[in-house]
Q: What sequence folds into this?
């Protein structure tokens, strides 16, 4: 039986590694088919394995960075 896509729909973000693009889509909750494309934007993740070292080492203020402390 073919899905009629008449039920509920949800927003979903999908990443295409080949094109480095994020696709925000409306999908059918019953069959997960794309109903509409809401937005597409470029995205290339930049993982930094030591990115939170300064926070973990307690950069002034009990583990919070100075930028955090000045905002509170």
A:
């Amino acid at each position: 039986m073919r899905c009629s896509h008449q039920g509920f729909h949800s927003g979903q973000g999908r990443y295409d590694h080949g094109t480095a693009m994020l696709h925000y889509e409306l999908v059918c909750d019953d069959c997960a088919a794309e109903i509409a494309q809401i937005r597409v934007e470029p995205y290339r993740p930049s993982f930094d394995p030591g990115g939170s070292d300064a926070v973990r080492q307690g950069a002034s203020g009990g583990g919070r960075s100075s930028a955090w402390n000045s905002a509170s």
About this structure: The CA atoms of residues 61 and 69 lie 7 Å apart. The first helix runs from residue 53 to 56. The radius of gyration is 20 Å. The longest strand covers residues 34-42.
